[in-house]
Design goal:
The structure is a homotetramer.
Chain A: E1 2-6, E2 10-14, H1 16-22, H2 25-28, H3 50-68, H4 72-84, H5 97-104, H6 112-116, H7 119-126, H8 131-138, H9 142-148, H10 154-167, H11 176-182, E3 183-186, E4 189-192, H12 197-215, H13 218-236, H14 242-247, H15 250-259, H16 264-271, E5 277-283, H17 289-292, H18 296-309, E6 317-320, E7 333-336, E8 339-342, H19 343-346, H20 348-360, E9 362-367, H21 372-383, E10 391-392, H22 399-403
Helix pairs in contact in A: 1-4, 3-4, 3-10, 3-11, 4-8, 10-12, 12-20, 15-16, 18-21
Chain lengths: ~400, ~400, ~400, ~400
């Protein structure tokens, strides 16, 4: 048994299979994967890692298992899944995940291979656990998969409160202890017990407020877009493979970007926080559906055209189109008057939060500081944006203020 | 200048008129007025007082004035109003406020008399401040009244974060420092500066989540209803006047209830937290409009009838009808793209929160523990409740669980 | 089982005998006993009560029992003792304890009678627990008494961290979770396990820093001395008995002081925080041994003489002589290299802290604000103080600053 | 003006020269220098960086300047020094500082060159500040140098509270706001104002408790010693220069260690936290003076001899001799009764803390896990240790427990 001091949950007691998993290179690597990727360029204290988060998720899983009276091999399997749930992350966590998925077909929770072929497999075998079932839990499969990856999972409980602690933004400060205590299974579904409509709402609200303030802060989005573009260029190099990049840590990726000719300028910009600025920042209803659903190749063409027309390097124009909002509908469930009800049917907040998401959606076009004006105009035209609504950098009066919207009070 | 250590804002520097006001009996009395009245029977750490809250409001007002560059006599007047804004509170804060209003015509922010006739007047005079204008600010009058009493006032910012600190319920943990920094005046209106839609939402959400969990927790409502009934009985005594009760502190009121024959049993119940239980807990749409808008005299008749039919003392049945929900509409304003917009028009959350309020509304009927069944049935019939929907204590199966709804995880 | 939300330990789960004890009037009364007495006049947020502290002590005791693998009836007895350990407190906790002891022969931990003759006895009987053994644990008797009342008891762990939370003074913020985890029994002695020299030191240091800053802050001492004097006068009244005062709560005592002619002025001063000031503030080596060991009657004579010579009312001069420092020697023990060692022999800090205590010792003479000068001189002479060293109010130049020593940054 | 959100001080307002310095590569590089080096291998949340610490020091310096009423160019110079005070740090902060000093003659506060020859110089010139005077402040020179680098500097105030926040160890939680408020200059000396003996003690005590628990935790020492040895080997490579290593960031150094044949095994061990174990852990009085004062070359000979005799690689034995304890005597000063006194003369704690330091001093010999026994014996003999006292790994019974001494509750 090992006891580890954590700045969020205080003492975390690590036992059984989890204690052995802790010492595998796959878990130790998470010490060098930033939990929030480039968000640290916005909130300088946000240097926390996937490693401490994994410990936190393991801790909350253990507490939940206690309250749910789940014991034995099933519990060990869930604790193992909690500890391992993020080992599939690429450097900078979600920042380059989509890009790597296009090359490898794998997301961060596709960990079967990682669990089967590494030191992790040996540890699981020592403890008599089936690697496939552990991987299944991480992918959210089965009744108990909901605890590790679902609407009420301990993953989200840990990251909200941990991100709040490390950024200093209080919105994520949920009552995680209450959440863990109130989890219960009804007919195979993980739900919150009677009297927890507000508890469930608070979880959704916390995420809804953290989203624009932290996770999709415009500076985080710009730096992430630049990192993604740089990594794309890195993958153009003959000797670097997406599978290798996926298993790098942050140190590897940053160093690789520094050493590669095609990406050195991006590395310099990252290192000195010399970021692109917004040329366009357009609301959902001002962006044609065809643009919102364009595939990466189409967007690369747009970028190339705009760059060319503005006499810029192709790397100097980035079009950043977020996924459609509200795609992931909330399926949280609560017990009300003895019935399992969807939170959505019980709380007007849930629908409102979904609408908010659409209101916060923004298409961004980013470029070097002295070209925002001409790139803004060229991009708006090429993308067929409604010029009046879309904010194009030097066209709209009062733009400086407006562009700071969602700024979270931070750089 | 005095520096005071506060558990919420750390060091509070009290200067000028505020330092002198601090030493008046009217302000010192607030040390013995519980900020949340009987909520301490739900959350045992919630023993904070109107005194420390007043210091906090003064502190935030000073910070806001700094950011707004308001100086001189106007600033002194606002700081005086901040320090004095709660001196009109009766014992147990809002708990018996409506009752006393029926007798005295005064709410807690009707403080003209208190400011004019006491040591407070002398202090204001010493500093050349007009008592009426200070009282006006406390009542929310004029441009600067918004800072002390309005949708974006520093009063709410302090109480949310202070109540969270002392109850342990994290929902009130707003980013008050950001709120204070982002206040600005546009055309005489106090609004939040560009980029603060989430900041404004977070304030509303915090209150919306604290409401059912803390402020209107059913145990807080029951104990408050009992205290109100007891105080009503106290006022029946020949020698006790509502004006006197209004100026009591918590110590006086509790002791008076103990010593008065008609209220001693209430005092015993309060002292040993031996509270009535819910006999009825009915949702908004199950309660006839005529009941929802009944005046106190009508409700007293209902109580008497039900008590009689159940062979109980008249004090042993309490019908508790909250005000209509959503009456106080949100008028928070934010600056968006250079325009002042009502938060309501900008944020789908605001409407949703109003709807939530109606969903959380409950009529309660409370009585002694062994009579909940018969009182529930009698009251439901007398009030014309939709029996199926309304929860009547021993009728509905699974009632224990249901009755714990909104329980905030606490007794 | 009841779950209670606490602002210090978050959710506290109360079970078994403790849940039933919670509902007794003896425990509920603690809601109205201020944990730190008049310290709230220095730190306005310090309104916490013996009730929430008792819950905290119960909680830490439960955690310690878990780590020590103590179960069954022994554990229930300890949990009962933890919940009940403070029911013997008089109003304002320690403030009038000595005074009442002179009249009743009882300290706050003399609870045999209280446990035997009240509702508490019935609850203990229901759970098959022997009242005498529970009272013994509270008095610190036997092996397990050390957990409830000893050098490493959970009482101290809770109060340090709780007082820090509520005053805002961080010095008490110990690592209580580590302390509880590292407790172990060696040969019947409760000690800290290997590797905890610093853990033990931190507990002593926390108390050593909280002492002058919070517990014996000069304003706390003055207001406590005034309360003690007022209560002494109250006991002079024909119809008021020390046994009755001992079982009052804060509300009772304050109201009694207000209603009694001989104490009304003290009550007014307490209510409006209109406190006496220091006339003398003398260091240990400047005070004759005979004064340091004088009994209360002798001091009353001094007070009367000084008051008379200064033409003041006898109530207007208070001589405040703290107990000899360092009487309670530290007997904390730690395991080092497999041996149980006294912390004192292991840590040079312990001896230093004892010396510090003597350096911080001060005799105080307090009086009305406009008489400090003449009372200072008269008292210094009457007590035979070394005038040069002793600070007498208007004699010493720069006295304002000096008198603020140990002021904790607060009023 | 920029406002930055910090998890320790909340909103930090960066203005004037500091805002421009923030954007220099020299300051941005600090984002990639771990504040506590390898301590993160003990406390997994301790991923904070020199960048956020520099912001914090700048913030506290600004607050102190306000309280001290220092304005104009002097204030700008101090704020610049606060922001820049750590730009001279090598990767992993202090971990390889001594080693690099042997090669370059520079410590982290030797920043003249860095300030003179880089973008920093341009910014200082733009603001009319003399680089040499800023460098002087960083080195602690002159009256105002005490604020930036001295016994009562804001550097220490920030790091204690920040390290506590990020490790989760509460001992560093000082009352930094009070400290900053109570600073004052008397005759050119920076001292704490009247009434702050405890405030000064608390700063020393915080450091004294953080030292063994965090900064010199044995796992931090082992990993630091391994990193130092690895960096030594790296400097043996023909193409790597100490000046270059000094200007690397953590990413560079870790990657360089991975890519260099002679250090790859160290890198692997660091990456997977596969650390050496203690073979010897000897107290001060058991180590001959000649060993305690041995120079690095002599210790390398010892290591080589022991390794050879145990048939290990020379890299597999590390002898770790800390500096003599108590060398840096405390010169904190406080105002008592209008006189400036050395805290040392006023507080018995100070001397005790110095003695403690010697008691905590340990010589360590580290090696691969399966060789601790034979290396322990060989090293003890070669170093002439008093075998009975010194803990040699497999010789002393009960050694596992003992070796965990000073373990801080963490891995």
């Amino acid at each position: 048994m090992t006891t580890i001091k954590d700045s969020v949950h205080d003492h975390i007691q690590v036992e059984g299979v989890a204690a052995d998993l802790l010492d595998t290179p796959q878990v130790q690597r998470l010490r060098r994967i930033a939990q929030l990727g480039t968000v640290k360029l916005v909130y300088p204290s946000a240097n926390h890692t996937r490693f401490e988060h994994s410990l936190g998720v393991y801790h909350l899983a253990s507490r939940a298992l206690e309250h749910l009276s789940i014991e034995g091999v099933q519990a060990e399997r869930i604790r193992a899944a909690a500890m391992l749930h993020d080992i599939g992350h690429a450097p900078f966590s979600h920042n380059v995940e989509e890009l790597l998925h296009r090359h490898t077909g794998l997301y961060h929770d596709d960990v079967e291979e990682l669990i089967a072929d590494t030191a992790v497999a040996d540890v699981l075998a020592d403890h008599g656990l089936d690697p496939d079932r552990v991987a299944g839990l991480i992918a959210g499969e089965g009744k108990y998969g909901q605890l590790v990856s679902g609407e009420l999972d301990v993953d989200r409980m840990d990251y909200l409160v941990r991100d709040a602690h490390h950024t200093g933004v209080p919105y994520g400060t949920i009552d995680h202890e209450r959440l863990v205590r109130e989890l219960t299974f009804v007919g195979g579904e993980l739900v919150l017990d009677e009297g927890n409509v507000q508890t469930a709402e608070s979880l959704l609200v916390a995420r809804a407020l953290m989203n624009p303030t932290v996770y999709t802060h415009h500076v985080a989005r710009i730096s992430k877009a630049m990192l993604r573009r740089a990594t794309e260029r890195l993958l153009d190099a003959p000797d670097i493979d997406a599978d290798v990049v996926r298993r790098m840590d942050d140190y590897d990726l940053v160093t690789a970007l520094r050493m590669n000719d095609g990406t050195a300028e991006f590395a310099r910009r990252y290192d000195s926080r010399d970021l692109y600025k917004r040329a366009v920042w357009a609301e959902y209803h001002d962006v044609p559906e065809s643009v919102r659903s364009a595939d990466p190749a189409e967007l690369r063409d747009v970028e190339a055209d705009v760059a060319e027309s503005c006499e810029l390097d192709a790397n100097e124009v980035i079009v950043d189109v977020p996924a459609e909002p509200g795609m992931t509908e909330s399926t949280s469930e609560v017990l009300v008057n003895g019935e399992v009800r969807r939170l959505e049917d019980q709380s007007p907040l849930v629908t409102a939060l979904r609408t908010s998401q659409r209101e916060q959606w923004r298409l961004g076009v980013y470029t070097v500081a002295d070209a925002t004006g001409r790139v803004g105009r060229a991009a708006a035209e090429r993308l067929g944006l409604d010029i009046d609504g879309a904010l194009v950098a030097d066209v709209t009066p009062g733009v400086t203020a407006t562009l700071d919207e969602f700024d979270g009070g931070a750089r």
